[in-house]
């Protein structure tokens, strides 16, 4: 009995810690609308309302981005915090947690160029605002002295009430 109790207690602690860990991550699921007055990418796009529907589970996070009649769906599987940098080689998209921030990485087509992107999402304390810090890397096959092959920006989204 003395052996069983510590093992059971240890098992309970492991299960509790795992449950607590999954519960401590912010919940990004819902519909979000870009605030163009506070977002850098809004200046690059044609006018129109941009919304993102996010569905977050323990295994993956799905984004359905809509602007007018255009719609794009991406799925990022959760991985442990990666040690290797993300490659622009078209490998699968991934998502992971960095503290309370949701980080997604993947490749996509922007204006005819294949680019790698990293998006780091954080929520406001009340969960009504989502800030997305974006890094986009273009591998064009050549380097220029002092030239950058990346761009960075910040977008702000407001949660659409259900």
- The number of helical elements comes to 1
Instruction: Just name the CATH architecture.
Output: Beta Barrel
Largest sheet, in brief, is: 9 strands, mixed, barrel
Measure the end-to-end span: 51 Å
Number of domains: 1
CATH superfamily: Calycin beta-barrel core domain
Strand order of the largest sheet: 1-2-3-4-5-6-7-8-9
SSE map:
Elements: H1 4-24, E1 30-34, E2 50-56, E3 60-67, E4 70-78, E5 94-98, E6 101-110, E7 113-123, E8 129-138, E9 150-159
Short note summarizing the structure:
Helix content is 13%, strand content 46%. With 162 residues, the protein is mainly β. The protein has one domain: Calycin beta-barrel core domain (Lipocalin), CATH 2.40.128.
Give an overview in words:
This protein is mainly β. The chain has a single domain, classed as Calycin beta-barrel core domain (Lipocalin). It is 13% helix and 46% strand. The chain has 1 helix and 9 strands, in the order αβββββββββ. It has one helix spanning 4-24; strands at 30-34, 50-56, 60-67, 70-78, 94-98, 101-110, 113-123, 129-138, 150-159. It has a 9-stranded mixed barrel. The longest helix is centred in the N-terminal third of the chain and has 21 residues, at 4-24.
